[in-house]
Amino acid sequence: DDDLALLHGVDLGLEEGGGAEALPVLAVVGRPNVGKSTLVNRILGRREAVVEDKPGVTRDRVSYPAEWSGRRFTLVDTGGWEVDVAGIDARVAEQAEVAVALADAVVFVVDATVGTTDTDEQVVRLLRRSGKPVVLCANKVDGPAGEADAAVLWSLGLGEPFPVSALHGRGTGDLLDAILDVLPEKSAHGVALPDGPRRVALVGRPNVGKSSMLNKLVGAERVVVDDTAGTTRDPVDELVALGGKPWVFVDTAGIRRRVHQTSGADFYASLRTQAAIEKAEVAIVLVDASSPMTEQDVRVVQEVIDAGRALVVAYNKWDLMDEDRRPYLEREIEQELVQVQWAPRVNVSARTGWHADRLVPALERSLESWDTRISTGRLNAFLGELVAAHPHPLRGGKQPRILFATQASTRPPRFVIFTTGFLDPGYRRFIERRLRETFGFEGTPISIGVRVRE
Ligand code: GDP
Ligand code: GDP
């Protein structure tokens, strides 16, 4: 399938840079020959032109680490996605769509000497709908004489056109300044975090045993002094060595401070829970296994999912567990926590320390899933087989086609599927189930977005 070929084998290496940071992503979009690659080279400060690439050959790399004025970002060059020369124009909108789905901001390049075409208008509509910040680059303005051509592009309704000569470097500084003004500090596609120990939130409703568990964990191994390289931490965060590695338990002050159980305190406790989850990469939700599960337990689990953090569910007070209670607990888990069957489960006792050592392997499994990236090639091979074996059910004689898919981000894994029509929710869940069966993802929420091509 041609559409699949478009992205086949192209791994959007957005994890470029290796560290825990999620750099903002800038996509360069525009028709062929407007000078996208030339501009990318200019931004990257490279002499050698990517332009020399043979037409019809897909470059296997589309994202590059870039820097301007001391700010780092990831640059996505859609020029490399052109797989065949015939019918390229029709592809531009599609490519822009994918790029926009992945980007935090977009540079839209127009050849000012040529002006705009229908394709440009189409891309502009798409860019507007996306709500992402867009900077308009009026390229090939090699001298002052061309500035009038650039001014015409105000009519696109994308704001100020920046006259640029990507070839000679004229105006690219102003363009980059304008880009940095609109580019967010960190990517919406991931969690920007400092390098260093992984961050854990220990959460759960009052009295499930959070402070007991924290004391147990801190007591188990010596508390690491606060001079580990690369750790800047809040005084309310606690650095704890577990399994021979340092971990940061975030917002522990809230756990240690005993608050009276008034309704007001409950409100603040739940705000604190949310804040802790936001600051963490992975959450351990403690549940009191010895008493009936409550709505509040389910809500905390849901907050972790909504925040897109990795998850471990720990059933505490197992020392109080008796054989009568056991079947009730299992039924509660089945009924109330069915949406997180993928989360590792650990039965523990903060009082005796029983199974506390099982928390670390569970945290590591969840984080590994949270970090997982499936290459576009593998993903589309998987989807191709799935769709062939289990096509989407017919709807009014029609059937939405899946064109291609890509993993837009990690932490947590987010997928975007491009289709010709809306997918039934049941079919979407089916895809998620199969994704999990095939690739694992134990302990991490995953999201699947569907983009319908008009
Ligand atoms: P892409 O297909 O959008 O990536 O465009 P390229 O970067 O491959 O550029 C297409 C052609 O336009 C090449 O021959 C470039 O040398 C030329 N070009 C790119 N930028 C400029 C510019 O600012 N001024 C002039 N005169 N030519 C340019
Ligand atoms: P928090 O409000 O979540 O921080 O809960 P605490 O750690 O203060 O624990 C609430 C109560 O449950 C205290 O009386 C603890 O001693 C008790 N508790 C905590 N963990 C366990 C456990 O594993 N077993 C038993 N039997 N009691 C526990």
UniProtKB/TrEMBL annotation:
Keyword match DNA damage: no
Signal peptide annotation: none
Keywords on record: GTP-binding, Nucleotide-binding, Repeat, Ribosome biogenesis
Binding annotation for GTP 2: 204-211, 251-255, 316-319
One family name in Pfam for this protein: MMR_HSR1
Residues at which GTP 1 binds: 30-37, 77-81, 139-142
Superkingdom of this protein's organism: Bacteria
Domain EngA-type G residue range list: 24-187, 198-371
InterPro entries, per database record: AAA+_ATPase, G_ENGA, GTP-bd, GTPase_Der, KH_dom-like, KH_dom-like_a/b, P-loop_NTPase, Small_GTP-bd
Entry keyword annotation includes Transmembrane: no
NCBIfam families in the record: GTPase_EngA, PRK03003.1, small_GTP
Quaternary structure, from the entry: Associates with the 50S ribosomal subunit.
Family: Belongs to the TRAFAC class TrmE-Era-EngA-EngB-Septin-like GTPase superfamily. EngA (Der) GTPase family.
Role summary: GTPase that plays an essential role in the late steps of ribosome biogenesis.
Name of the molecule in the record: GTPase Der
Gene name of the record: der
